[in-house]
Amino acid sequence: MAGAGRDERISQRWIASTIGSSLGDGQEGLSRLSPDLGGMVLRELLAAAPEEFLGQVHAAEHGAEPGFLFKLLNSRERLLVQVHPDRERAQKHFNSRYGKTEAWHILAVEPGAVAWAGFKPGVSRDGFREAILEEDAEKILGCLHEFPLCPGETLFIPAGLPHAIGGGSLVMEIQEPTDITLRAERRRPGGERLPEEFLHAGRGMEVLLDCFDFETFGREEARKKIFLERQMLREGQGWKELAILSCEVTPYFALHEIQLAVGARCEKQNEPFTVALVLSGEGTLESAGHGISLRKGSEVFIPHGVKDYAYVAGKDMRLVECHPPCVSSGMKENT
Q1: For residue 293, how many other CB atoms are within 10 A of its CB?
Q2: I want to staple 283 with a disulfide (CB 3.0 to 4.6 A). Which of 168, 245, 278, 313 is the partner?
Q3: CA 288 to CA 333: how far, in whole Å?
Q4: What is the pLDDT of residues 170-214, one digit of tens each?
């Protein structure tokens, strides 16, 4: 088990990540163990013994990768309108086994925070191409539905869905483990003009357009498809566990929230492994007579070898757990 808290003022934080950002030298984005545990790169640790850390079933399917990527995003300015390929198009155009279906859970917002997602009725491939070529940001945004954002909301962004988020939002994002992002805008909101490769990674305009799903919806229909409702999973003395994102929505990952009142103890079974992030409060994570302290911002990887564990709240505590594809798709570990 490993945990570490970091400065929350950075714009992105990748948690339990074994992939590097497509920008820079490829090392940015890789997670490390906390310094008191040696500071080793997580990818190297998992590669040394994938079955022990991730479980036999998961390792057979995904190798030494968690199979998802978990992030915290602090949107200081509006992100450009973008899209991600599904698995078929990711393989065809980018030689990647993973597409990039994702979900956003809104943690905090400034007044007026919004997101854009889904094409409005009447938008066509040719019309959208024209807006991109004209570099008309207002016209591009006008093709998408705009939604105000509130803390606690969850948006499901399947591969192919056009989307953007405005400034002033702190977002928890879970996604397939790629950094393939295609963009419909060549200029940042501040006016900086970006190279054409920034739009389509050098694959050309038709590949960019091919990755968009041009199915259109009315605003309320789009909202029902995009915004998710939490589901109660179980509860006990002073605690409850809710599904923010369940296997009924996507087979690629799951996201649960656990809320504990001071003094509460929530016991869990680990199948096959878990990544957790503490959102508020403090307490301990206990297993087999050992424990580590938790506080707001603590990041924890609970490996396959830890079969049973418990959260104990020293103060009211709220945390999220990410679960990998083989769990959220219903596959079970051999024990």
Answers
A1: 11
A2: 313
A3: 20
A4: 999 999 998 899 999 999 988 899 998 999 999 999 999 999 999
Q: Six-digit token pair at 31? A: 């997670």
Q: Which helix (H) or strand (E) holds 210?
A: helix 205-210
- What values do phi and psi take at 142, rounded to 5? -65, -15
What is the Cα–Cα distance from 290 to 326, expressed in whole angstroms?
27
Report the distance separating Cα 310 and Cα 239, nearest Å: 12
Domains in the chain (CATH in brackets) are 6-228 (2.60.120.10), 231-328 (2.60.120.10)
Question: Would you give the end-to-end CA distance of the chain in angstroms?
Answer: 20
Length of the chain: 335
| φ and ψ of 83, to 5 deg | -155, 160
Q: Are 143 and 123 in contact (CB under 8 A)?
A: yes
Rounded distance between C-alpha atoms, residue 167 and residue 183, angstroms: 17
| Amino acid code (one letter) for 290 | H
Distance, in Å, from the CA atom of 90 to the CA atom of 225, rounded to the nearest integer, reads: 23
Tens-digit pLDDT profile for residues 129-172: 999 999 999 999 999 999 999 999 999 999 999 999 999 999 99
- Which helix (H) or strand (E) segment is 126 a member of? helix 125-134
Q: Is the pTM of this model over 0.85?
A: yes
CA nearest neighbour of 243 among 148, 328, 147, 158: 328
Residues 158, 245 contacting (CB under 8 angstroms) = no
